[in-house]
Amino acid sequence: MFAGNNGLYAQQSSESSVSVSANVDFVSKYIWRGQDYGHTPSVQPGLSATWHDFTIGTWGAYRLTGDGDDELDFYISKTIGPVSFAVWDYWSYSKANPSRFTNYNAETTSHLLEGQVLFSGGEKLPFNILGSWLFYGADPSKSIYVELQYILPIKSSEIMFFAGYQAKGNYYAEKASFVNVGATLTQPMAVTEKYSLDLLLSIIANPGNKSIFFTVGVSLYNK
């Protein structure tokens, strides 16, 4: 599933032309909302296009070693002021899980469809609030997840503190509980006119299943 613990900023573009963003992350372990997806390490490319505050994109996670599934996701989002609305389609597959992308049968699919609402306070109020509902697919409990983020700039770097809570369902934990608590340091390492390279360090705890992780990664993206 998307993005480990990358920043969840609501982006707004006033330009009439289409803008394209691309990135690739290399992370030591694929952790998403406090869950370990069995990639050690993981390559995670992303590509998106934005036009008039509409964004359509794709994101993937591919294991180099480990026994987890590979993943290919698609999403569409719309930003209105400080609020973004999005629908995600997460699809997992592997030799042990040879699911077809076209299989959307509720009982056998490995797709997860998610609706998201994101409020971003921007630079003046460095808080983000994310609400997520897994409304169809491989989670029959239709889990609801809420995450609060606080972004703290430190010179050229920043630390994002986050706390994610499963309010309903059992996808992230057996019962309602905090499942994703921690912090991510983003430290720029190289910047050119067109590209940036960041170092990512994350400490992530899942109190719901009593696990904790430390991950390291690098992120390359166009400016």
Strand and helix map with partners:
Elements: E1 19-27, E2 31-32, E3 35-36, E4 42-51, E5 54-63, E6 70-80, E7 83-93, E8 111-120, E9 127-137, E10 144-154, E11 157-168, E12 177-191, E13 195-206, E14 211-222
Antiparallel strand pairs: 1-4, 1-14, 2-3, 4-5, 5-6, 6-7, 7-8, 8-9, 9-10, 10-11, 11-12, 12-13, 13-14
Protein structure class = mainly beta
What is the general shape? Answer: globular
Number of helices: 0
Number of strands: 14
In order across it, which strands form the biggest sheet? Answer: 1-4-5-6-7-8-9-10-11-12-13-14
Gap from first CA to last CA: 24 Å
Give structural attributes.
223 residues, mainly beta, twelve-stranded antiparallel beta barrel, 14 strands, 0% helix, 62% strand
Outline the structure in words.
By secondary structure, the chain is mostly beta strands. It has a domain at 19-151 and 165-173. It is 0% helix and 62% strand. It has no helices and 14 strands. It has strands at 19-27, 31-32, 35-36, 42-51, 54-63, 70-80, 83-93, 111-120, 127-137, 144-154, 157-168, 177-191, 195-206, 211-222. The strands form 2 sheets. The chain has a 12-stranded antiparallel β-barrel with strand order 1-4-5-6-7-8-9-10-11-12-13-14. β12 (177-191) and β13 form a beta hairpin. The protein is globular.
